[in-house]
Amino acid sequence: MARATTTRPVSTRRRQRWPDGYDPENTRNSLITSALALFERRGFDRTSVQEIADHASLTKGAFYHHFESKDDLLRHIQEEYLEAQLVAIQQIEAGSDDPKVRVAELIRFSLTSVAEYRAHVTIFYQERRYFTGELFAEVTRKRDLVEAAFAGMVADGVARGVFRSDIDAKIATFGLVGMCAWAYQWLNTGGKLSVDEVARQFSAMVLEGLYA
Fold first, then answer.
1. Relative to the CA of 124, which of 23, 71, 131, 165 has its CA 20 to 30 Å away?
2. Which residues pair with 75 in a beta bridge?
3. Which residues contact 70 (CB under 8 A, 6 or more apart)?
4. Distance (Å, rounded) from C-alpha 78 to C-alpha 124?
5. What's the gap between Cα 208 and its chain centre?
6. Alpha-carbon distances, residue 40 vs 54, 74, 83, 152, 207 (angstroms)
């Protein structure tokens, strides 16, 4: 079975440092890490820009050098997660044309990405009421692409007679996305079952229900 990697893309650009030792890339990453921790623990609306900067041991000026606003930072956090999903979906589609394999891999990746990007997923479900306006148009577009890929894999299986013809691809997609995403509430990466084993059991339940 093809396995999609969840590793984040590594930039080939040479890291730039200023003459005084200032490292823009490291500063930006520190602010993102700080925001992830604070948004997850305290919530978006209860976290100030100053607190994000303080938690990262940086200045408020450093924050505004990299991000236009707290909303801009939240948008970036969500796009980082969605970009990883879109890359993995492309790998799954390239790795096999078998609908059963694709759906199983999609479930496995969804759970492993919840484990890797738990803070991103938590923030999305806790703070999505703030995802409004033009600032989040691209986030919405990418989320639609992710859900369309789920639906497309199910619809392809139905069209090819692999999955049941009475299954509505959109309803199945809502079920798959909800089942996998909600795992951020309970998935324990250090528990008795590995993430791959949980994915195997999820796949068994889902695929048994989809098989024609």
1. 23
2. none
3. 44, 47, 48, 49, 52
4. 7
5. 26
6. 16, 11, 20, 32, 33
